[in-house]
């Protein structure tokens, strides 16, 4: 999966060999139990008892409408369908980890008497508190005392993860989606093998009304069975009186019905308006991470790989797609036809299954006997050529690079009109946002860069993720870190003209910034709840994962060693599941110099954060010390973390060519090496390929500053950008005075390369925005003068004509967006003129792609042009351009328009709801809107988490953009108050911790540096 904002990014073996199925003490224990397993006290305490009572037998004791409604709304957080009755919701959510038991506190009168007597006997309030929850600790759980209704069996499983005694082998799915009524029926036949003796089968199902269930053991007769359901964990179960024996095979058939989802996950409906103004509907799937269970009952964990045979019934005027090629189409007697797809030729995790019903048109091409197709809605067909070409080249590259051919016969890439993530790597049927796949012939190289990198990312997943899959979501980085790394690596080779290096460098800087927070987490980290699974889709899994792979590759001797290691890994674990150690072991095995990759890399994946390396020098002796670079710490934080750091360095003797690079491994707290005494300066972390920050001490920084002031080209542009990034980070940490930051930046008027300029602008803009929002007017004015003075000549040099080089486009758009954002007259005049020309020509004259944003931003500031831009937005078909218009519209400083656009984004008609995170983050950048946005988020929180799951990347973006602008105690209190009031609706999210920490840091930085700024700016 590609998170949206970053886009700028068989082989079945005997499964018993797979270690994860061998070690399962809990399962064996439970299976021995002759009755139902005792509930683990910890787990019981973890969940309120009320939720346990939601267990019910199928067909009997069905709840009445109200109860049902109430119960459904108590769905796992963010897992949709939470919009029913808010009155019910607030009382019925079982997701309150800390909430006291509720249902059990409604005992019958008799029990009350017993209780009172009991209390009298014990005569101690403390003891009462101790014993009240006691009923949960019985073997059978907490039962209703009403003798007149049959006692329901308790749900036979008490954990978030499924038991491993049963393994699915194959699924046979038949689906009947009804796009007129937005619902579907389905039938799922699951063949399974028993791995350990057991009396139960537990699997996932969410929001499905199961109407019939039959079970067949080995060659026996199929018979009806009762399905138990435990909705809070989205699990269903069968209980057997006789043990199923290891080695037996069985078949479970489930018929069910459900509504198509109206959020962005599961089997969801989507619509768009075609060029003739007609509303078109379609249904598509997004299963990663936990939503396959919303389309069919299944063992919905990545390690339960199986084969899939999929059949979809449809009206003749729709078409369908799935992971595999279509095998046949059969007419049905109700006027519908059935498309049957070939059975998957590989074992596959459930989150990679996909199917789509709608109207799409393909362009296709054969690449090494694989049919590659790009699908779009019919009217956007002419925007698919670039994607087809890029996908074909990248597929060839990966086939060759991994030395394993793509294992399926076809590969479809499809642009879905309403899609939340950037893209999703479903095996053989990759789904994309339109902006991530479609580019016009006229599109700028920057837009092509976006499309090519998302394709490169998703194609890499066909090996990393699909062929070899992480065993559990705690190692999500094995999928995402790798795909992110491969996306940059492959593009440097396959499409070098896209200049992807600058983007990868910027991505590594942002990953460091996030990982410097105490609220960050280790790359591999425990994951035990749905929102923790969602939260793994963050910059640590993606960008830090990619960064440490780059560091590893750069530190291995010989350029093919890394590649050999990953080929070894892919071949060894093809079709299987792995954890992080499997990867490091494969890389260690191929190491020519017996480098212990495991030893080095586990220090980077098993602890959060990264090291600060401090350099001190005495004559020829250089001492390096390492410590955890932690912006804020609480008392509980371990400060003794050590990393195994492959430190690289260059010096004024030799600083540019790769041969200049020296390597020193720092494993301990400090280490020393020698350099000739004549060396004037050292630059560590050559080209910023390592994941650490360097402090050179006053003398070291002064020497580097002087060297740069003399001649910028003594260092590579990556090294210059890395100095700028590092010194700002050190200022935030409090190690370097802001005066030193400004001193280093004095060289910048001589800078011409993209990455140092964009990094400096980004850092200065951040401070500018904080000052602006604190209403430090005189400092804001001085900061503006400072930026225009230091970057003015470079800004003035920029042209407004077409520009072919991606790197120059990046430089130009960053400079001009800043200039126009600061109301630089030169800039705004040019932008206005271009907009006028564009409107006068009826949108036929072209604004260069990289300048569209700045032009639309300027237009949106004018009361006259904003409605014109809105009108253009309403009619634009090309999605990339449309998004820039939207960003422009949201950058208005008119309060009424801001409120309107926020509401429109939530409503989802004129502005698709998938764009709401973008709207919010744009509004928050401006002075006029950031408080409105914060109010808006508080007022509409429940509707937001209905659309975007708690913990998801979209919610992370929304929280971060709304709160990262705050720097006062009052705002800190407000943010804290709001999120803690949410309780189960989001208070536990890591992004909330991150937000609070960021506000504290902003506050601290301001208190410390306002005076310096007043003096030196
Ligand atoms: Zn991905």
From TrEMBL:
Cofactor or coenzyme needed: Zn(2+)
Q: Which residue ranges does the record annotate as region Disordered?
A: 85-106
Q: Which UniProt keywords apply?
A: Aminopeptidase, Glycoprotein, Hydrolase, Membrane, Metal-binding, Metalloprotease, Protease, Signal-anchor, Transmembrane, Transmembrane helix, Zinc
Q: Which residues cross the membrane?
A: 112-132
Q: Which GO terms describe its cellular component?
A: cytoplasm; endomembrane system; extracellular space; plasma membrane
One GO BP annotation is: proteolysis
A Pfam family:
Peptidase_M1_N
What topology does it adopt in the membrane? Single-pass type II membrane protein
Identify which residues the record assigns to the active site. 458 (proton acceptor)
**Which of this chain's residues are annotated to bind Zn(2+)?**
457, 461, 480
Annotated GO MF terms: metalloaminopeptidase activity; peptide binding; zinc ion binding
User: For the Peptidase M1 membrane alanine aminopeptidase domain, which residue ranges apply?
Assistant: 386-604
Q: InterPro entries per the record?
A: Aminopeptidase_N-like_N, Aminopeptidase_N-like_N_sf, ERAP1-like_C_dom, M1_APN-typ, Peptidase_M1, Peptidase_M1_aminopeptidases, Peptidase_M1_dom, Peptidase_M4/M1_CTD_sf
Q: Does the keyword Transcription apply?
A: no
Q: How is the cofactor bound?
A: Binds 1 zinc ion per subunit.
Ranges of residues in domain ERAP1-like C-terminal: 681-1000
Family label: Belongs to the peptidase M1 family.
What PANTHER family does the database record attribute to this sequence? LEUCYL-CYSTINYL AMINOPEPTIDASE (PTHR11533:SF42), PROTEASE M1 ZINC METALLOPROTEASE (PTHR11533)
What protein name does the entry list? Leucyl/cystinyl aminopeptidase
- The species this protein belongs to is Dicentrarchus labrax (European seabass)
Phylogenetic classification of the source organism: Eukaryota, Metazoa, Chordata, Craniata, Vertebrata
State the encoding gene: lnpep
């Amino acid at each position: 999966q590609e998170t949206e904002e970053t886009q700028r990014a068989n082989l079945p073996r005997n499964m018993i060999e797979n270690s994860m199925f061998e070690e399962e003490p809990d399962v064996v224990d439970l299976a021995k139990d002759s009755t139902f397993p005792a509930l683990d006290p910890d787990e019981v305490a973890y969940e309120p008892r009320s939720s346990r009572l939601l267990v019910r037998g199928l067909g009997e004791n069905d709840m009445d409408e109200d109860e049902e409604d109430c119960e459904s709304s108590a769905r796992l957080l963010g897992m949709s369908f939470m919009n029913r009755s808010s009155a019910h919701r607030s009382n019925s959510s079982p997701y309150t980890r800390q909430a006291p038991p509720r249902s059990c506190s409604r005992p019958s009168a008799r029990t009350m008497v017993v209780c009172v007597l009991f209390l009298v006997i014990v005569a101690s309030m403390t003891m009462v508190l101790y014993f009240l929850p006691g009923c949960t600790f019985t073997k059978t759980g907490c039962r209703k005392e009403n003798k007149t209704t049959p006692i329901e069996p308790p749900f036979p499983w008490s954990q978030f993860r499924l038991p491993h005694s049963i393994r699915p082998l194959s699924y046979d799915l038949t689906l009947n989606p009804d796009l007129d009524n937005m619902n579907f029926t389905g039938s799922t036949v699951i063949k399974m093998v028993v791995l350990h003796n057991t009396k139960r089968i537990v699997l996932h199902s969410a929001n499905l009304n199961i109407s019939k269930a039959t079970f067949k053991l080995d060659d026996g007769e199929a018979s009806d069975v009762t399905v138990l359901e435990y909705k809070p964990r989205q699990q269903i179960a069968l209980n057997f009186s006789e043990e199923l024996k290891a080695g037996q095979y069985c078949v479970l058939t489930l018929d069910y019905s459900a509504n198509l989802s109206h959020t962005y996950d599961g089997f969801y409906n989507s619509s768009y308006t075609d060029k003739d103004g007609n509303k078109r509907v379609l249904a598509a799937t997004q299963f990663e991470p936990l939503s396959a269970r919303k389309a069919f009952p299944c063992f919905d964990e990545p390690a339960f790989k199986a084969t899939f045979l999929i059949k979809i019934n449809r009206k003749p005027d729709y078409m369908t797609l799935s992971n595999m090629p279509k095998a046949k189409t059969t007419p049905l007697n109700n006027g519908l036809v059935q498309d049957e797809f070939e059975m998957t030729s590989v074992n596959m995790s459930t989150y990679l299954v996909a199917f789509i019903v709608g109207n799409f048109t393909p362009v296709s091409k054969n690449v090494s006997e694989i049919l590659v197709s790009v699908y779009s809605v019919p009217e956007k067909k002419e925007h698919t050529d670039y994607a087809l070409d890029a996908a074909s080249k990248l597929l060839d590259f990966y086939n060759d690079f991994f030395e394993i051919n793509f294992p399926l016969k076809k590969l479809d890439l499809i642009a879905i009109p309403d899609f939340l993530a950037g893209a999703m790597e479903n095996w053989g049927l990759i789904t994309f946002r339109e902006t991530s796949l479609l580019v016009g012939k006229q599109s700028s190289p920057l837009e092509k860069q976006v499309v090519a990198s998302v394709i490169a990312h998703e194609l890499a997943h066909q090996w990393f993720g699909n062929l070899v899959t992480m065993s559990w979501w705690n190692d999500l980085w094995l999928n995402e870190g790798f795909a992110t790394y491969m996306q940059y690596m492959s593009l440097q080779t396959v499409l070098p003209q896209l200049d992807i290096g600058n983007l990868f460098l910027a991505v590594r800087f942002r990953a460091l910034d996030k990982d410097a927070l105490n609220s960050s987490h280790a790359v591999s980290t425990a994951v035990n709840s749905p929102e923790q699974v969602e939260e793994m889709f963050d910059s640590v899994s993606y960008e830090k994962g990619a960064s440490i792979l780059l560091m590893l590759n750069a530190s291995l001797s010989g350029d093919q060693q890394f590649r050999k290691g990953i080929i070894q890994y892919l071949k060894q674990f093809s079709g299987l599941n792995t954890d992080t150690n499997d990867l490091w072991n494969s890389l260690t095995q191929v190491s020519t110099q017996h480098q212990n990759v495991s030893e080095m890399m586990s220090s980077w994946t098993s602890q959060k954060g990264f090291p600060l390396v401090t350099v001190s020098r005495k004559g020829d002796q250089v001492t390096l010390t390492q410590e955890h670079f932690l912006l804020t710490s609480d008392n509980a934080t371990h400060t003794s973390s050590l990393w195994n750091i492959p430190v690289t360095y260059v010096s004024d003797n030799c600083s540019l060519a790769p041969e200049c690079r020296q390597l020193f491994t720092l494993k301990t707290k400090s280490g020393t090496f020698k350099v000739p005494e004549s060396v004037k300066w050292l630059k560590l972390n050559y080209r910023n390929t390592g994941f650490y920050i360097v402090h050179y001490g006053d003398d070291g920084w002064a020497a580097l500053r002087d060297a740069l002031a003399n001649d910028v080209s003594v260092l590579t542009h990556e090294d210059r950008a890395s100095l700028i990034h590092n010194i700002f980070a050190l200022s935030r940490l409090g190690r370097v005075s802001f005066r030193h930051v400004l001193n280093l930046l004095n060289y910048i008027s001589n800078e011409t390369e993209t990455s140092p300029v964009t990094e400096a602008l980004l850092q200065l803009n951040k401070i500018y925005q904080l000052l602006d929002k604190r209403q430090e007017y005189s400092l804001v004015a001085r900061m503006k003068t400072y930026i225009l003075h230091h970057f003015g000549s470079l800004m003035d040099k920029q042209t407004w004509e077409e520009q072919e080089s991606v790197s120059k486009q990046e430089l130009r758009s960053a400079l001009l967006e800043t200039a126009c954002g600061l109301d630089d007259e030169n800039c705004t005049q040019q932008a206005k003129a271009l907009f006028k020309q564009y409107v006068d020509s009826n949108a036929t004259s072209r604004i260069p792609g990289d300048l569209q944003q700045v032009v639309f931003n300027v237009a949106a500031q004018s009361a006259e042009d904003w409605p014109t831009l809105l009108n253009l937005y309403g009619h634009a078909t090309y999605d990339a351009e449309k998004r820039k218009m939207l960003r422009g519209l949201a950058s208005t400083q008119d309060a009424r328009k801001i409120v309107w656009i926020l509401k429109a984004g939530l409503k989802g008609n004129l502005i698709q709801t998938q764009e709401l995170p973008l709207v919010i983050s744009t509004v928050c950048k401006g002075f006029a809107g950031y408080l409105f946005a914060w109010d808006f988020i508080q007022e509409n929180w429940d509707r937001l988490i209905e659309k975007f799951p708690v913990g998801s990347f979209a919610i992370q973006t929304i929280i971060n953009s709304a709160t990262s602008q705050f720097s006062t105690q009052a705002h800190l209190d407000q943010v804290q108050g709001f999120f803690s009031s949410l309780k189960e609706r989001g208070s536990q999210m890591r992004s909330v911790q991150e937000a609070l920490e960021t506000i504290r840091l902003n506050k601290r930085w301001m208190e410390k540096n306002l005076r310096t700024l007043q003096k030196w700016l």
